[in-house]
Amino acid sequence: MNRNRLGKSAIVVSDICMGTMTFGNQADEKTAFRIMDMAYDAGVDFYDTAEMYPVPPDIKYVGATEEIVGRWMKTKNRDALIIASKVAGPSHVWIQAPLRGGKTSLDRHHIVRAVEASLRRLDTDYIDLYQTHWPDADFPLEETMLALDELVRSGKVRILGCSNESAWGLTKSLWASDVHGLARHHTIQNNFSLNNRRFEDELAQVCRREGVSLIPYSPLAGGVLSGKYNDGAFPEGARFSLYQHAPKRQQAMLHRFVNDKTLESTRRYQAIAAELGMSVVTMAIAWSKQHDFVASTIVGATTAEQVPELLAAAEVTLSPETLAQIDTVSRELLYPMG
Question: Rounded to an integer, what distance in angstroms lies between the CA atom of residue 313 and that of residue 2?
């Protein structure tokens, strides 16, 4: 397992991170423990969660994921783990978080309440990486960064990051931190996969120039790259199978992730992987972590049986010839997720 630095911070992590967003819903606690144990035994020291997990968000079980991760942490040496969590973004935009009466925001009041609740659920006195889950472009970034800076100075949080952020938002936050002498974002956690390479357009350059690391989520494009949605299939219990009859936001996500172009690109990537004698799952994760601006790629599982295929990417380096084949597919099927 290779290790990389998170931004310009002192924290170095495995280049595969275990995501936990299904724990407490699609994966029960026993299964979650097994998945995290398998990752830990393979050398993964980086685990990502959020106050709003598991997904899809529901008041019935919100916060359950952090509680499960917290109980699992007691079976390990806390100092050997790098734990990341997130404060929910504003509830008046694209998603309403089932937290704090559906009034979440990125002001000091909500940030302080969020981190204290996460520390209780995780049963720890510090979080290694604390991230804003999604942005509020209309709220002064200086106020958000000032509140986050207090968490770093108090020792509750080691370093900061953002998620689902734009090039403007990341650059603006870094400017605010630099001008006001505040702790800055060392990481950004955005969607990035073979089916969604938009991060390379602008954000990759911001990361390179500013010393910020991408922690990509959804390297399998919401599971689409596994091939399970091929030929119009919607497996029982799969995320986008559930989204077929969900509210409009989830249905919009379904059509963004599962459409004619994403299914065709998946078919072509499967053919490339077959030539290499590996699964497309392993190839997709290996491709993700093989970028200079990526520190650690977040993978996720709902069953223990899925884990070996994910972790196998740790030992894979794709050749220039394979990367060229992948680039050809990307050029011919530009932006399959829109």
Answer: 11
Residue 122 lies in a domain: yes
In a domain, 26, yes or no: yes
The HSE-up count of residue 335 (CA atoms within 13 Å, CB side) is 5
Q: What is the rounded CA–CA span in Å between residue 173 and residue 157?
A: 18
In the 8-state DSSP scheme, what is residue 222?
T
- Does residue 282 form part of some domain? no
Model pLDDT, residue 94: 81
How many domains does the structure of the chain reveal? 1
Mean pLDDT rounded to a whole number for the chain: 96
Tokens of 117: 């609740």
Distance of CA 299 to the CA centre of its chain: 8
Residue 53 bears catalytic tag: yes
20-61 per-position pLDDT tens digit: 999 999 999 999 999 999 999 999 999 999 999 999 889 999
Average pLDDT over residues 183-210: 98
| CATH code: domain of residue 144 | 3.20.20.100
Q: State which amino acid sits at residue 109.
A: H
Give the domain range for residue 181: 3-223+291-317
> What is each CA distance from 210 to 204, 242, 288, in whole angstroms?
10, 39, 20
User: Is 230 domain-assigned?
Assistant: no
**Looking at 40, 47, 53, 229, which residue is catalytic?**
53
For 141, the token pair is 């970034």
Residues 225-265 pLDDT 10s: 999 999 989 988 788 888 888 888 888 999 999 999 999 99
